[in-house]
Task: structure prediction
Amino acid sequence: MTRKGQIPILAITQGDPAGIGPEILLKWASTRLGGFVPLLVAEKAALEQVRQTMTGGEEVACEYLTSIESREQLLDRAEDDGIAVLDPVAAARSIRYGESGPQDAGAAVSCLEAAVQLTLSDLADAVVSAPVNKYSIAKHHRRDFRGQTEFVAEMCGKQTYGRDYLMTFLTSDLQVALLSTHVALREALGALSADAVFEAVSCLQRNAPGRILVAALNPHAGEGGLMGREELEILEPAIARCREAGFDVGGPESADSLFARARRGECDWVLALYHDQGLIPIKTVAFGSATNWTLGLPIIRTSVDHGTAFDIAGRGQADARPLKRVVEATRELIAGRLPRARGHLS
Result:
């Protein structure tokens, strides 16, 4: 949280420069939104190259910095027309759009690392990240890379995968937390346990308390064991334990209707058991307007809900509105509010 009366600083990363990240940063920056100080963490080479391909960002004056020494260094620019840019790469190079290579993967990680370090050091108040290409980073830079969520959590000292932090998605009428994130479905199902569910519910209650409904794994919540026994043997005991601990939790609820019921206001959170179980409904009802929030970290980290869009990169066609919505949601989180009417952080 920012100190009282202080203007928040948002560190916004470029993502993979071979994708649309640098373009949406410049297009978004051209809107000149007030009430906070934007800091783009991006390569000068990427921003200046994409500037030539677009409309809606040419007029953005970028002041390129090699380091950030204090918050005041950025706060002094709050009334200026220019946008501060921290370039942790500082390399003169040319980007090939749609083809993420070793330099692109390394630059994406360097920008993310710099933004997280700034926020951990209280030189920024939140990290907002543009999309990266997971395969490219894993191939060219770090073999065990699975996503920005896990990478940032590790930088923040969160070692317990998916338990003391959660990947969540926020929309105007649906909030979803994921029990597992970027792992194969077989691995996610193999890791399903009563302890995992209890720990995830505990994490939600600590960081954003409210009514939680847990999704079932099998069709019709297993139909009393007819279509699978995970509900009887894992989920029901886990939920009973959660209730004994005083948590407001229900389920397991059949996933085919749960998300529609959640949108009608039956709960504050849905706990989905694996990535696509939660992301298909989110992206069906709110693609381009959802905020990816890594709940449970010592810092605020959010992201857009779309990918690198290699197919349109460098053509000036990227839409910056999803980034704008994420920035708005991030400002709500900084202020201690979930970006929906009834959600409040404790």
DSSP finds twelve helices and twelve strands in the chain. The domain at 1-158+298-346 is CATH 3.40.718.10 (Isopropylmalate Dehydrogenase). Residues 102-120 form the longest helix (19 residues).
